[in-house]
Amino acid sequence: MPSETTSMALREVTAEPEFSLWQRIIGLTRRSPTAAVGLGIILFFGMLALMAQYLMPHEPELVYAERVLHPPSSEHLFGTDGNGMDIFSRVIYGARFGFGIAIPAVVLALVIGIPVGLWTGYRGGMVDEALMRFFDGLRVFPSIILALAVVAATGQSLINVVIVLGVLDSPVFARVVRSEVLALRSSVFVESAIAAGNPTWRILFIHLLPNAIQGAMAQTAVRAAWAVRISATLAFLGIGIQAPTPEWGAMIRQGAEFMISGQWWVALFPGVALILLVLGLNMFGDGMQEILNPRSRAEK
Length: 300
Fold this sequence. Notes:
The protein has helices spanning about 5-15, 20-30, 35-50, 50-55, 85-125, 125-140, 145-155, 160-185, 190-195, 200-210, 215-235, 250-255, 265-290, 295-300. The chain has one domain (about 55-300): MetI-like (MetI-like fold, Orthogonal Bundle), CATH 1.10.3720. It contains 14 helices and no strands. The longest helix is centred in the middle third of the chain and has 37 residues, at about 85-125. Mean pLDDT is about 85; it is low at about 5-15. By secondary structure, the chain is an all-alpha fold.
């Protein structure tokens, strides 16, 4: 019989190491500095969105009629806009709209694209051809023009913008998942599942989905950056979210009117915030694709 000391030693040897959050961050930095920097930017804006109520020195839609177009100062760090609203507070609050549009739009695109990609890749045939040709049509048509037309027709609300962006982006995830399923549907584990009498839904969502979703997950951050950029473009063109709502695209549109007269701060600060968030999402997405790529992992 092993002694108590020997049993404790064996448990210590066989126990899996516990990694702290700091160790995981260091590991991510070593594997992909690009992903680490992108994650840092995303977390920064996520903190702004979550803590906006406590970080804003003024209400984002509070009008100071006597302080219209005041330059940056100790009272208003980023100055005031053409309505006399504090730009610093509006930039902070605008982070909520950035994430509030990007996250639901990507989730909707996943909900639409993943089942379509699973079904068409597994079944094939005429249904596959018809759906893929329809999705190809969505991707070929300029997305910004299509989004402009649909949002203008359905109404300029936050929900409509999210739905339009989610539907327009679903072909990306459908294509990625479909290509994975096409490579996996002849695998031994799929044939074994069919021979065991598993229904189609179980084969798709229990056996194929966990093995085919990796590429789609690597695309989420990049597609979130696309959603943020397109939603801001719609607002800048006057089709998306409208002023005085503190949305960065709408703020840039208002500030563009004052650039010629020298009030540069109205458009500069929301523009910088928009660029940084899109950059952070793209960097994190590129880094995760690099990490999840089997070839890059084999090289390292």
